[in-house]
Amino acid sequence: xxxxxxxxxxxxxxxxGQVERLAAPARRLRARGALAIVAxxxxxxxxxxxxxxxxxxxxxxxxxxxxxxxxxSAWLLLERGDAAGARERLDTMTATGGARELWPFAxxxxxxxxxxxxxxxxxxxxxxxxxxxxxxxxxxxxQSIQLLTARAKVLIALRQARKALALFxxxxxxxxxxxxxxxxxxxxAGRAHEAYVMSVKWGIHQDVSPRAALESMVVSMVADVxxxxxxxxxxxxxxAEALSARHDLWSPWSAVAPEDRGLVLxxxxxAARDRVSERASFFASSVSVxxxxxxxxxxxxxxxxxxxxxxxxxxxVVSPNTVKTQLQSLYRKLEVSDRASAxxxxxxxxxxxxxxxx
Length: 358
Fold this sequence. Notes:
This protein folds into three domains: 2-100, no CATH class; 174-278, no CATH class; 294-348, Orthogonal Bundle (Arc Repressor Mutant, subunit A), CATH 1.10.10. It contains 20 helices and no strands. Helix 7 (103-116) packs antiparallel against helix 8. The mean pLDDT is 87. The chain has helices at 2-6, 9-22, 25-42, 45-54, 67-79, 83-90, 103-116, 120-133, 141-157, 161-166, 179-188, 192-203, 210-228, 235-247, 258-266, 270-278, 294-302, 309-316, 320-334, 339-348. It is globular. Keywords: DNA-binding, Transcription, Transcription regulation. This is HTH luxR-type domain-containing protein. It comes from Microbacterium enclense.
């Protein structure tokens, strides 16, 4: 489990495989559940499906020992296009007990399930809820990358791609694990050429997993059609198709926005075109975030449940009437009538961040 938390998926597979062969039934189930999660992180949906199917009738499945298998089963539903079913199962997962080592993966998967079921504005609040419930078990660096990637997709869906791009700085800068999410953020921030260059490089990188490679290839295809239209190259599409078919991995195609889908589908074979057409887009439910002026943003940053108008005015060195005017405008744009609702709405839109945000 330490290897898994660190993102050393090959080492985790070897160690968990030994446990699976030698352990008692309950521990064997836990090992197989973790193996299924490793397979899903890597992008081998077919292998994860075999592992979960083998344990469907296991008597330990409903116990804490089966938490990993239950998470993997919910994730499989998402991979197969059933976002609503995945959300229903993930809602039953707790942040304690057997799930305490796996909660970052559960939270990341649940955020994507929110996106694919049309609930993008609720996804950031859901991620914050996971963070608040699991303060005693902070995520590892690798797990933080999974959470950041999910959060970036949510921000892109909320039309805040530039803010998504800003997530990947410092210790979360460019690496094999972050490259697909960075390229995706660049693409939707209007930097198609940079996204294309980065995604092409990492799509053929020898050290990336099948999932990361396919995610990069999909971004490069979308960037290519945005830059070149019908003259886009088909070679990347052929490699991406082959990778999807080999691992039964089709979820990365959800990164194709509705406005790009027509041109991307033209690059695919008829069989792949049918599979990709069935996928919902992460960004189909994109909504317009309320646009705030710089003054409104400054006032919002000072807004707390206990701060008074006079407190904010003193902090900003302006008159109370100026603060009052900006607050009234802020409430109108956020469609709220009081301070507490404004703070909640601003968090939901990603306009302000709390200390627990990643």
